[in-house]
Structure formats: C-alpha cells, structure tokens
Specification:
Blueprint: H1 7-18, E1 30-33, E2 36-39, H2 42-51, E3 63-66, E4 72-76, H3 77-82, E5 97-101, E6 108-116, H4 119-122, H5 133-148, H6 152-159, E7 163-171, H7 185-193, H8 200-206, E8 215-220, E9 224-226
Parallel strand pairs: 3-9, 6-7, 7-8
Antiparallel strand pairs: 1-4, 2-3, 4-5, 5-6
C-alpha cells in the first residue's frame, strides 16, 4: 500500500483514472532536492524578458527554498497538468509546483505559485488582475487543490499531512537584483518579515480562505523560505 501513496504514483495513475483516461504516457516531472533550491516560472520569465530587454541578464529566480533539513520532492505541476488540456481532466487554473516531503515522515505538503511583478500589481489594483496577483495565485492554488481532492486516494494523501501550505513566491522586477546570503535563511526571512508585504493583517483581508486547514505563506525574493 505504501507505493500507492507516493505522489508520483498518484499523479501518474490515480488522477487520470479518476477521469477514465489512459494512464499510458502520462509523465510526472519530479525531482528530489536537498539544500538551496531555486524555482522560477519559465513562462512568466520569458514574457518579462521579452517586454523588458534590460532584464536579459536576470537569473530568472522567483523563489529560494532551504531544504537542507529534509529532502523535498518538487513536481512541475503546470507541466504535468498541461498533458490533460482538451480532456475532461483539464485544469483551467493551475499552480506552478507541488512540493512534498521526500521522506517516510509525511509531514508537509505545499502548493506553490510564482510571479514576477511590480508590487502595486501584487496588491489590489486597476490593472489586468484587479484583486492583485497575490489573490490570483491564491485562487490558482485553491483550484488545483480542489481538483486533486476529487480523487479519494489523492484526497486522503493530501489531507493527512500535518502541515499544509499554499506558498506564494514573488519577485519585484523593478527592484535591483540582490543576492541573498547563502546559508543564512533565518536572517533573510527576518528581513522579509520587516517589509509591508509581510503584514499578516493585509494578507488576511486580501486572500480568500484556502480551506482544508491550508495556510497561506508569502515569500518575497530574495528571502529564503525554510522548508
């Protein structure tokens, strides 16, 4: 039974089976990491650099994770879901990554969405996303979660994690590039917590409830999130 509870098995077999789809050829792009991990939203980075030539030398990193305490399996969730476009299993709104403990401890799971944007567009604004990109990311993570919960075995797997989070990582493309101090995640996180964007009261007003005992966590680059 243990093999049935591995996230790659659930995504490769159980999710498509829930929609009576052939599981042959379903690919789960997953890698196990330990140490400092850097994640990016390739599609968003391509668009950013296409419109802003001065960002050509950007390192294309939206989120830094410190996974030194525990190996973490990271699934390219958007790439995974793209396989089901134009089928009954399609997800119109999907997050970027799915992260789970890569140990037998079964302690933590995270749905993750990334963006690179001016801060004024992360908050509610008069632009393309009036509620702000933070709220948009929250919605995409919530909808990804709800879609996976339709499969009973997947739901059991997800909901039995003691710690469940929706992780929003974002980078202000107008801010100068800053290289954080590697190995000093606590100091970097403390610096982030002093910024207005980390104000919990602000987040509580702008973010809808995720549900299912998931917590919403925001990390602004170059801060490092400790897994």
């Amino acid at each position: 039974m243990r093999d049935e509870l591995l996230i790659d098995r659930l995504l490769q077999v159980h999710y498509p089976q829930e929609y009576d789809l052939d599981t042959h050829g379903v690919v789960v792009d997953m890698a196990i990491h330990r140490g400092l991990v850097e994640l990016s939203d390739s599609k968003a980075c391509d668009a950013c650099q296409g419109h802003r030539p001065h960002r050509a030398q950007c390192d294309r990193v939206n989120l830094r994770l410190d996974t030194s305490a525990c190996p973490v399996a990271i699934v390219d969730f958007e790439k995974y879901v793209n396989q089901f476009d134009n089928t009954v299993a399609a997800m119109r709104d999907r997050c970027d990554y799915l992260l789970v403990d890569a140990t037998d401890e079964h302690n933590k799971i995270a749905f993750c969405d990334l963006t690179c944007s001016e801060e004024k567009y992360v908050n509610p604004n008069d632009g393309k996303y009036p509620l702000g990109k933070r709220a948009k990311a929250s919605s995409q993570m919530r909808k990804s979660l709800e879609q996976l919960l339709l499969d009973p075995l997947m739901a059991h797997y997800i909901l039995t994690f003691p710690e469940k989070i929706c992780l929003f990582g974002w980078r202000d493309y107008d801010a100068p590039d800053v290289t954080p101090l590697r190995g000093d995640a606590a100091r970097n996180m403390l610096a982030f917590m002093r910024t207005p964007s980390a104000n919990s009261r602000t987040l509580a007003k702008e973010i809808s409830v995720i549900g299912h005992n998931f917590s919403f966590v925001q990390v602004k680059y170059p801060s490092v999130y400790k897994w």
